[in-house]
Amino acid sequence: MNQDKVMKRRMITAIVLMLVSFIALAIFIGLYLDETTHVQDTYKKQYRTEIGHVLTEIDIYLEPEGDHELIYRRVTNYMSNAGAFAFLIDDFTEKQIIVNEVSTALIRYPDQMKEKMEELKTALSDINSELDKGYDELKELYESLDLKGN
Known about the structure:
Elements: H1 2-62, H2 68-88, H3 93-108, H4 110-115, H5 117-128, H6 133-143
């Protein structure tokens, strides 16, 4: 009889520990999902910030005076940063590809891209305003380049 009581206590203890473990697991899963959402929001904010920096530098570039080469390098740098943050955003693959193509075009085809700064500014303004047509404009801009030239 005494053996039965000990076994019942052990079973009750095991069941209680199992329930506590499941509750703790559910809490940790919830916290993980919440933190993942928060991190994604941070990446999206930083992406928009970098796009804003590109727009600011393009405005400066379009002014007649100033060191255009330095400003162009800053445009390239900020666009590359935007591409890096686009890589970190979930479910952003198609848009990321377009951003990275334009970022690469800024590096590889500077002569052509310098002529298309106004178009780039328009597309990035639309993206910064959270309009998807901006990505279509970026894609059209990239496709309009002579990829065999400078």
